[in-house]
Design a protein that fits this description.
2 domains; mainly alpha; 16 helices; 416 residues; Growth Hormone, Chain: A
Length: 416
């Protein structure tokens, strides 16, 4: 394992007097803005496909929007890390928020003129994908400028709550507001993105990129090089990609399984909230889970414990059963994400950290994209039960390989 290379892994001074995170108003104000922005993104992810379906009645076009957004995010994923390592992070964060706000404002203007076209939807997808690719790593970096290193793990756990809140309430709000009118969800998105832009502009933090005397890796591939030279890093990123694949791939089969049990859309929507609620609970359990054992062993156990409830979904025990299994799947996600930050992101020098984060996010996005593709293909040739079994078998192969290797089983938490 590489030695710790920055102040985030050093023990705090004994006389340091830290302000409790709940009283850190910069962090709390930033958290509110990030939550509002995340809620806006969660709404837009459902509202735009609903708009396309109501206008064209074409599931293929609705899927095309998601595909363009994903391609945009992946195309800019790794270069986004270079930008985050080169440009003032405050300016970059504000820029990404402006891109999100203006892109949705353009769609609202088109809706008011009754002039929504496919090219405008494509441009929206490209803009939102670009903002997601640029904004996600820079937010991870900005958080380090607002929160002291000693409180970063606690802050990341609270940030996981933000993500689950958006995942839980976004689709519900999107559906409810769309029933009122087409403009409803997009006005809510504008409000969320406006709050996010306001907090990004008003919260004080030093966005300058730190330049240390020690030479850092250079170029677009610096993040890849940093991760590739350490076997534990490679294993952690691979495990994260596999976990994302499974989390995404299980959703559509779960929906179809419930449909086959004659549940309606409202009931299915309730069942799908299980994963988000599990994640909210898991965020509070993160530090306790981390204290139980070494990180590699913990992440392997959490991964295997995700496979088991996915397999159990095929048991036709109704709505509450599916909700409970998705809840169990969600519980371990925050602990996994925070452990990835502790074990990988904090080991990188500030000069290359943006690129390291972007590579990990890229790997996770690849896992999610492959999960969607695999699920669609399997459901075209198999029953939902067969698709679930096949997905679990596909995931088991890399999990067995990673479990058999020594890198994860021998990994340990940083000394401080």
């Amino acid at each position: 394992m590489l030695p710790d290379s920055n102040e985030e892994c050093r023990p705090p001074a004994r006389d340091a007097k830290l302000i409790p995170l709940r009283l850190n108003w910069n962090f709390q104000f930033y958290w509110i803005g990030a939550t509002a922005g995340g809620l806006g993104t969660s709404i837009v992810n459902l509202a735009v496909p609903l708009l396309i379906l109501s206008s064209t009645h074409s599931p293929a076009l609705a899927g095309g929007y998601s595909a363009v957004l994903t391609i945009s995010q992946l195309a800019l994923g790794i270069p986004a890390g270079v930008v985050a390592d080169r440009i003032n992070r405050r300016a970059l964060l504000i820029t990404t928020e402006v891109i999100r706000l203006l892109s949705v404002a353009g769609l609202v203007a088109a809706l008011l003129r009754d002039d929504v076209s496919w090219i405008k939807i494509v441009l929206l997808a490209i803009a939102l994908g670009a903002a997601l690719a640029l904004g996600t790593p820079v937010r991870a970096l900005v958080l380090r400028s607002i929160v002291p290193p000693e409180q970063l793990t606690q802050a990341l756990s609270q940030d996981e709550i933000r993500i689950r809140v958006a995942s839980l309430f976004g689709p519900v709000l999107a559906g409810a507001l769309y029933e009122v009118g087409q403009l409803g969800p997009f006005i809510a998105i504008l409000v969320g993105y406006g709050i996010a832009l306001g907090t990004a502009s008003l919260v004080p933090f030093d966005g300058r990129v730190q330049r240390k005397a020690q030479a850092s890796l250079r170029g677009v591939t610096a993040g890849i090089s940093f991760l590739w030279r350490d076997t534990t890093f490679r294993a952690l990123v691979s495990l994260s990609a596999v976990a994302n694949l499974l989390a995404v791939a299980v959703v559509l089969p779960a929906v179809l399984l419930l449909q086959h049990q004659h549940y309606g859309g409202g009931a299915i929507g309730f069942a799908l909230t299980g994963e988000a609620l599990g994640g909210m609970v898991g965020a509070f359990l993160t530090r306790w889970l981390h204290s139980l054992m070494a990180p590699g062993k913990l992440l392997l156990i959490l991964s295997w414990c995700t496979v088991l409830p996915v397999v159990a979904l095929v048991i036709p025990w109704g709505l509450i059963w599916v909700f409970a299994m998705l809840f169990v799947i969600g519980v371990g996600v925050p602990a996994r994400m925070v452990a990835l930050d502790i074990m990988v992101f904090r080991r990188a020098n500030d000069e290359v950290r943006g690129r390291v984060i972007s590579v990990v996010l890229f790997a996770q996005a690849i896992g999610s994209s492959f999960g969607n593709t695999l699920t669609g293909f399997l459901l075209s040739i198999l029953s939902p039960q067969g698709a679930v079994w096949t997905i679990c078998l596909a995931v088991t192969v890399p999990l067995v390989f990673l479990t058999a290797g020594k890198s994860l089983r021998q990994a340990s938490w940083p000394s401080a």
